[in-house]
Amino acid sequence: MTSPAERYANSKARQVEFGTSLPDFRATLSFDLDPFQAEACRKVAEGHGVLVAAPTGAGKTVVGEFAIFQAMAENRKAFYTTPIKALSNQKFTELVKVYGPEQVGLLTGDTSINSEAQIVVMTTEVLRNMLYADSQTLDGLGYVIMDEVHYLADKFRGAVWEEVIIHLPSNVQIISLSATVSNAEEFGGWLDTVRGDTDIIVSEVRPVPLFQHVMVGPNLVDLFAEDVAFDKVAEGDIKASVNPELRKLVRSHSPGGRVQRGRGRGAPRGPQRAPGLSQRVSRSSVIARLDRAGLLPAIFFIFSRKGCDMAVQQCAMADLRLTTNEEAAQIAQALDEVAYRIPNEDLDVLEFWSWRDGLVRGFASHHAGLLPIFKEIVEDLFARNLVKVVFATETLALGVNMPARSVVLEKLVKFNGESHVQISSGEYTQLTGRAGRRGIDVEGHSIVLWNPDMEPEALAGLASRRTYPLNSSFRPTYNMSTNLLAQFGREQTRQILESSFAQYQADRSVVGMARQVRSREESLAGYAKSMECHLGDFTEYLKLQRELAALEKTAAKSRRHERRSAAERSLQAVIRGDVVDLPGGRRFGRAVVVALDEAMYNPRHTVLTEEGQLRRLSAEDLNGPLQIVSRIRIPKGFTGKSPKERRDLASSLRNAIYDHRPPRQDAQSFDFEGADSFEREIEKLRLQLRDHPCHACS
To answer: What pTM was computed for the model?
Structure first.
């Protein structure tokens, strides 16, 4: 029951709506607007741009639908932009049902329907290209709804959203719909800067509470010990801890009874199987378990198109059936209508019959590789609660209206186009946000399938962070720069690039950096004061110390380099049969060169030691140049494989050493000229340090 103050506030809000089209829009709805929806719609009615940030499934699109309703009332155009074709196709179908096919158009990369209609749904790239081409389709445009606007953080496509926001005419109202982000005020501030009057409406409330679970083997357990919804944990109202039962199950399914921490450095390679978990639970078994728990319909996220199709095959081979006879008959009837529109010879090529079999049983795949007509029928049957499980890639999480009672995440790692990476907290929120059907379910459920590389604490951390920062991915490309220069000229192009969200964030970060610089300068001033010495300039004394330390380090490095160079030169000078002294080697002593390495740089010759051992000798083994002390004849055909060969040659080596014959030559000696120069400078600095007045300071 509302309080008198709340009733008064609602009454005042309703008074504001009179004179706008909002009361008429309310009359078309079968539900009352939530407070954040009503506030955003009022701002749109007043002529403001809005940024609406709310959880997945909270009903943000209602604000965009009101903007379209108002555009129709004002006889102006409205564009509804989305990041993916599937969402564009679905929104087009929804709007056609409301306004009729004559009033609604669709523009995607491969589809063009009624492009000059008053309402046009399109992918964001299409609108960007229109702006660069100065298309006449833009004439009369009053509203642009940018669904999933947080997509501007996408590494590969995100810049398109910023380009559109910057280029749209100033008289166009932008309605930006975003998932909950932690820096909505910053993003809204940028929109206000580049677009003018923009209001920020943020809602943290999920209409349907979400509960988190983990499936370990056949066991379905809660992630958190407390019986608490995701919203409360994410908002920080409750400090939830990992469920002890989950820890116990994970230990029992991990090698040695311990939680598997993932492969670290030095861990054995190859598949790691836990004693208690001989193999991974099959997808059909997971679905059967959810069915028994009353958690269907479900979206089963698999980050691979092939994986989605394979999952359907696996469930069919397991003879899984989720539909009643009546539901199967309704699905078959809908599919027969689709088959009637496709030539018979094409049905076999498209593997229609195996696809049909899965749908009749109650499960299907959904990804960008499917024919649009196949995707549409899956979406329709799922919305009608006839299909119980959809195996989907992550694109289904981007606004496509296919809510479910539960969501299953098979893995928390995905391929981002360059490498396999852990999904972010924002992506986790987006995916699990599909769980819980508004007006149908009292609560939603997310289930993560456990594997030995998963840590319960890491999962709890991922599930506890509901918001994430929205960072610009805007980077001027050659193509973008060429288009801008051709259309706007150099000066205006520069102004446009400086208007980007990336530049806005950079400018704000500069302010923060300047604050840090000031703070550190103050700290340095404090240190300088504390270093004052009554005997003299202590800063000058420390400078001498630093110079001395740096010079000693450089001298040592130079000596190592010179020794290495001299060793390499001496290795290049020896020939087969030379008896050499090994300076500072791993094993001191003498040896005879028995085989030469022909490498131009850092050769690795084979030598025989006095003890009769063969070894490879490189510059790394030496602490300076080789010294040639004698020379002996190596028997023809010597291989060193026979112990007798090695013993005989080692005996000749020892005799040559004790004969004291003069060496054939001295290998190139170590050049100490550079070292002497360093020593003179070092000694000079040491004297200055000892003579400095502060050297006597306690």
So the answer is: 0.63
